[in-house]
Amino acid sequence: MFSEEAETRSERQQALEQEREELALQHGDTKKRVGLYRRGRVGATVERTRDKKLRSHLAQAEQQSEHSARKAARVELLLQEEPGYLEAEGMERTQKFKQKDIAAAVPLANSLHFFNLKLDTFGPYCINYSRDGRHLLMGGKLGHVATMDWRSRTLGCEFHVRETVRDVQFLHNEMMFAVAQKRHLYIYDHTGMELHCLKQHTKVNRLQFLPYHFLLASADDYGNLRYLDTSTGTAVTEHRTRLGSLKCMAQNRHNAVIHLGHHNGTVTLWSPNQHSPLVKMLCHRGPITGLAIDWGGWYLATAGMDSKLKLWDVRTYKALHWLPSRRPAASLDISQRGLLVLGRGREVQVWRDALGDRPKAPYLQHEVAGEVNCVQCCPFEDCVGIGHSKGFSSIIVPGAGEANFDALEANPFQGKRQRQEAEVKGLLEKIPAELITLDPDQVSRVDSVQPKEEGEEAEGSKKREKRKRGHGGVVGQLHKKQRKKDEAGKELRRRQLQEEADVQEGEEEEAGKRKKKSGHVLDRFR
Fold it and tell me: Which of 269, 292, 429, 508 could be 278's S-S partner, Cβ–Cβ 3.0 to 4.6 Å?
């Protein structure tokens, strides 16, 4: 009785939800929103698939994807947070606004994003924010390493390694981080305790972590690119670029491809599956000094010693435009909302709409106390971190961070239990390194190549029927040669046996003729 009533209620709820979705889809804006959240359609592939089981699975996956896109479009109405930018009035220019004036005009919670840490003893500093944007990792070139919750100004750990620090990088969360020191690469926990010393990674200059693959990529002084699986502690692969010391590295968050900048002005794209570069681009006439890729994985920003800042379309590998610079940029970064940040000398510039048309003037400018070494945009916050020779500075950049975050992806307010569950979930859903390609959607497609003519299709089917496993490589060729030799030997033996049989038959015929000619001894007296 109760089960039947529950079933009827659930059916009614599903019918009401379908009616609401249909009514919402009748509006033009809602259709556009659904298109933004849709992750590709495979309807044509489903129709061409001959396997019934595979076709049903693909149809079910497409239905679930469409349903999730509609749900996301409907929930978008509940997202009240909207990004905002600085707006000038009259003859004013946003690039002339001072950080003190901006901090006085924004709310109190956002005004706390502007602060300076005077650390002029062990600089210059390289910095790195965690994925959720809550924790900050700093590393001074003369050996000072520290972590902190920069929002609450709580110090996590602080220690001195007593040697050169080249780069720092958070791993899958703020509980572990890697430090590239003078000779080797070290792994520490959140308390500052040394966990591992990776002696195979020597003189590492740059570090990048791939969160969905649990891979730590390191570029060293000898031109080697190494991948380390942090979940198992095993070395995945090692690439020798043969292009000199590697001091510029960035990752494409869309396909997990590593981009390296070289001294000859080229940028190479690398994957752990191939020992040669996937793509090689000539970007500048001098050494590359900075690399940055937007969060969508479509645009690439490069800076070189020729004092030019160029924007590239990664999909076509063509230059969009370039920005002039009085001196080479030391560091580049692109925010979640597409703001381009560059640091050169003691000056930091922020460019708005630089990924589209060429802007006429920078969006913001700020001058720090020392020489800029590293700049990075904080995720989900309107601020930019600057590591320089005199310490660390954080400035307010309205419109830099994403206003709405996905708690299942990166939650800035997660607790201990949520962090543990997210770590286990990430390990269970870890993507193998073999799937890193230029086109990540290629894995979800079905190979359904159809010949243009029926004759080609028949010929292709005959070739597929004749094709056998193990006959296409070196072993198959050796087997084929051996079979030819055996057949030639058998044919030679068959001919020898036939010749011997013919000779024996001829001898028997001659012997029979002799018997007929000889007769009996007394025949001469007849």
Answer: 269
Please name which of 113, 96, 92 lies closest in space to residue 104, comparing C-alpha atoms.
113
What is the spatial distance between Cα 273 and Cα 481, in angstroms, rounded to a whole number?
32
At 12-39, the pLDDT tens digits run 666 666 665 555 555 555 666 666 666 6
Residues forming beta bridges with residue 194, ordered by sequence position: 188
Rounded-to-10 torsion of CA 437, 441, 446, 449? -70
Residue 226 to residue 201: CA distance in whole angstroms:
8
Q: Please report the DSSP string for 298-359 in residue order.
A: -EEEEEETTSEEEEEETTTTEEEEEEE-SS--SEEEE-TT--EEEEETTEEEEESSTTSSPP
In sequence order, which residues have a C-beta less than 8 Å from that of residue 224 and are 6 or more positions away? 238, 239, 240, 241, 246
Q: Exposure of 515 by Cβ count < 10 A (0-12 exposed, 13-18 middle, 19+ buried)?
A: exposed
In eight-state DSSP terms, residue 430 is: P
pTM: predicted TM-score of the whole model, two decimal places:
0.74
Please give the biggest Cα pair distance in the chain.
154
Q: Which residue reads 């999909």 in tokens?
A: 315
Non-local (6+) Cβ contacts of 334 within 8 A are 292, 293, 294, 295, 299, 301, 340, 341, 355, 377
Local structure of 293: helix, strand or coil: strand
Q: Residue 377: its pLDDT value, please?
A: 95
